[in-house]
Amino acid sequence: MWYIYHTPATMEQALAWLAEYGGDARIIAGGTDLILELERKVRQPRVIIDVTRIPGLDAVRLGDDGLIHLGPLVTHNQVVGSKLCVERAFPLVKACWEVGAPQIRNRGTIAGNLITASPANDTITPLWAMDARVTLKSVRGERTLAFEDFFQGVRQTCLEPDEMLVDIAFRPLGANQRGTFLKLGLRQAQAISVVNVALILGFDDGVQSAGSPASIAHARITLGSVAPTIVRAHDAEATLAGRPLSDETMDLVADLAAAAARPIDDVRGSANYRKYMVRVYTRRALEQLRAGTERGDFPSRPVMLWGTTDGRFPVWVSDPRASDPELTLTHMADGDQIIQTVVNGRTYQVQGASDKTLLRMLREDIGLTGTKEGCAEGECGTCTVFLDGIAVMSCLVPAPRAHGSEIVTIEGLASPEALHPVQRAFVDEGAVQCGYCTPGFIMSGASLLEENRSPTRGEVKQAITGNLCRCTGYYSIISAIEKARETDTP
């Protein structure tokens, strides 16, 4: 899929390589979009630059400038788990929670979502509503752009070939502001938006309270998946200014929001359907903000599948053969470089896998075939493994990313003496049908129980949203994970 795979230890080295290779290179962080583009030959870069080992790029912080800053390696689940974002950037948190499944959210980054630039990408809509800006860096210097200038069209940005997105910044919601994000998909999880809507309202006299309908001082309404880029519903926003959220006002604003949409017909919905649902979802979001219920369906303890980690992958791990802690690694498709990794507690040195995915390396080079390939697109979860303790889809992880990391597969869950409690429960509850999806479900269940020893049934269901059973055997699978929950020792 690529010829050269560089893993720099510093930002300076990453930018130097971008300057050297230009359009032949592509940055990879989460890879949940890029690996698919490579597999489908949408992109065919000769060089991949993996920035996931550079320290300090996964920070979520409130800066001295009063803005929330997200580093380029901040994942969707890290936003969901950020107390700062939950309190001050709820529309973005809600959007991140709606992206993919836990394994996807553990690898996919906000920066990658922006750079892919699909108008259906969920995080762009709330960030646009919060006046976000991006900082791009190259060896030539830095520039900071508003979203209106950064996004140029469908999957088009003004990012130059030698530039890297290094910061996302936006103003947090104030004490008199509330906001939310709503998404319509064709299923409850792993769904691309048919439409999505972000609303932020600022109230004249503090936040709206029951029986005291404060007037709207200002509003932001942004719409996704209804035009080549995200749409601002300017007329709808202007209509809200100075008015309380009456039924009549909400009806008018919903109509104006629908009028701002410029959708097309595609396989997920017709243009007329999209316009109609923009109206429905705008009205629904306004109702929630008026009632103060916008956080009602957001979980108090979101399922991350982080296991016992904090959801952050270790940064640079130097080559054990070298004394330089800032060694930069290069793996070439036709080279003899070694990927040294620990899988299920055993060290492996793999040669000839530098242009493969982690899934293929595990199966073809290490011989661990318990991890299955179902879709190779991050849709079915059969390839779920733990990368440094965090559940990921191994079909979307480049094999060189495993260098210096620890991997656990389905073969590594059981001890020599006994099966893992989730494995044992799958046997007892008859949760194995054709068996193909079973390894992925077991890995998700095991990760959940490491993270939360007493999950509710709803949390069990959330943990397996990234896993697909084609035999429709979910009831016994849920029962098995619940039974394993009752075991004292994982």
What features would you highlight for this structure?
490 residues; alpha+beta; Uridine Diphospho-n-acetylenolpyruvylglucosamine Reductase, domain 3; DNA polymerase, domain 1; 17 helices; 20 strands; 20% strand; globular
Overall geometry = globular
Q: Please state the average pLDDT score.
A: 94
Cα separation of the termini: 38 Å
Structural class computed from helices and strand pairing: alpha+beta
Number of helices: 17
The amount of helix comes to: 25-40%
Calculate Rg over CA atoms: 23 Å
Which regions are unreliable across 5 or more consecutive residues at pLDDT < 50? 319-326
Per DSSP E runs of 2 or more residues, the count of β-strands stands at 20
Please list the strands of the largest sheet in the order they lie side by side. Answer: 4-5-10-6-7
Which second-level CATH architecture of the domain at 59-291 applies?
2-Layer Sandwich
Strand portion: 15-25%
Using the coordinates above, name the CATH class of the domain at 59-291: Alpha Beta
Largest sheet: 5 strands, antiparallel
CATH topology of the domain at 59-291: Uridine Diphospho-n-acetylenolpyruvylglucosamine Reductase, domain 3
